[in-house]
Amino acid sequence: MNILVNGLEVSVSGSNLGQILEELGYVNTVLVTAVNGNFVSVQERDEFEIKSADKIEILAPMQGG
């Protein structure tokens, strides 16, 4: 299935947000996620079904100064 992740088209095989994050290499990482502009909490990710053409935003905290 083709989706957009942070504005880039990606082909994935997972069907829920948790599976897709794992497939993309986001394992044991502190993240904030949104699908189609709506926040998805950590607790909801494994139940949140993703459909073709959905837009996923993934944000990770960064240190800097």
Query: What does the largest sheet look like?
Result: 5 strands, mixed
In N-to-C order, the SSE pattern is: EEHEEE
Structural class category = mainly beta
**CATH architecture name:** Roll
User: Whole-Å distance between the termini?
Assistant: 39 Å
**Any idea what the CATH superfamily is called?**
Beta-grasp domain
Number of strands: 5
Which stretches of 5+ consecutive residues score pLDDT under 50? none
* Number of structural units classed as domains: 1
Average of pLDDT: 95
Shape field? globular
Query: Proportion of β residues?
Result: 25-35%
How do the strands of the widest beta sheet line up side by side? 2-1-5-3-4
> Count of DSSP helices?
1
Q: CATH first level: which class?
A: Alpha Beta
Look up the CATH topology: Ubiquitin-like (UB roll)
Radius of gyration: 11 Å
Helix content: 10-25%
What does this structure look like?
InterPro entries: Beta-grasp_dom_sf, Mopterin_synth/thiamin_S_b, Thi_S, ThiS/MoaD-like. 11% of the residues lie in helices and 31% in strands. It is mainly beta and 65 residues long. The chain has one domain: Roll (Ubiquitin-like (UB roll)), CATH 3.10.20. The chain has a 5-stranded mixed β-sheet, with no helix packed on it. The protein is globular.
Helices and strands, with pairings:
Blueprint: E1 2-5, E2 8-11, H1 17-23, E3 32-35, E4 38-40, E5 55-59
Parallel strand pairs: 1-5
Antiparallel strand pairs: 1-2, 3-4, 3-5
